[in-house]
Amino acid sequence: MFRKLCICAAGLLVTANVALASPASQAGDRKDFQVAKDIAKTVQRYTQFTIFDDVSATVKDGVVVLTGKVTMPYKRDDLEKRIAKVDGVRSVSDQIGVLPVSQFDDELRYRIARSIYNNSNFWNYAIMPNPPIHIVVEHGRVTLTGVVQSNVDRMLARSLATQFGALSVTNALKTDAEVGDDVAKSQ
Predict the structure, then answer these.
(1) Residues 12 and 91 in one domain
(2) Spatial separation of the C-alpha atoms in residues 160 and 112, rounded to whole Å
(3) Contact 52, 58 (CB under 8 A)
(4) Phi, psi of 20 (to 5 degrees)
(5) In a 3-state reduction of DSSP, which class is residue 165?
(6) pLDDT tens string for the chain (187 positions)?
(7) Where are the beta strands (DSSP E) in 71-119?
(8) What is the DSSP letter of 119?
């Protein structure tokens, strides 16, 4: 039986499928867990990864599946190359989508980002090297991803994002507690 283990690092959710079987498989499980942590660090250290990009990774037996959306094709390619070099990665399946070029989407991204990160409730997030709230805009549809400290922050971020004429706003933010619960359930 496999369980998913989520590692959240500055808005990046990395999942490692961990087997709950024999002691012999535990060495491989730890390896997947460590690979997942190393992938999270690799993405965090990629200087072109912004709050307008969202990438998730799933690790199972050293096989990594990347999903999400980025604003430029070179980011997808760079991330795939960097993650392929992580120790313990056997192969990478890159399923990251590239967001279309759109002046409307760009303006919407910047307006929402300013609204959220200029709000005094989010100043502690804004000063982080990798702010954890990500704003993905595709064809006027907004998705908020990442991790916040509380449900109040999650609801406030959604409220701030809805005031700029987006066709829809999907709130996929998780709280620290929810991520912690996911990790506890997987162990």
Answers:
(1) yes
(2) 7
(3) no
(4) -110, 60
(5) coil
(6) 333 444 445 455 555 444 434 444 455 556 888 998 999 999 999 999 999 999 999 999 989 999 999 999 999 999 999 999 999 999 999 999 999 999 999 999 999 999 999 999 999 999 998 899 999 999 999 999 999 999 999 999 999 999 999 999 999 999 988 887 776 676 5
(7) 91-98
(8) S
In which residue are the tokens 């706003």 written?
169
The CATH number covering residue 65 comes to 3.30.300
**Type of residue found at 154:** R
Q: Give how far Cα 40 sits from Cα of 16, 55, 164, Å.
A: 11, 10, 32
Work out whether strand 2-9 and strand 12-19 pair parallel, antiparallel, or are unpaired. antiparallel
Question: For the domain that residue 108 is a member of, what is the CATH number?
Answer: 3.30.1340.30
What is residue 139's three-state secondary structure? coil
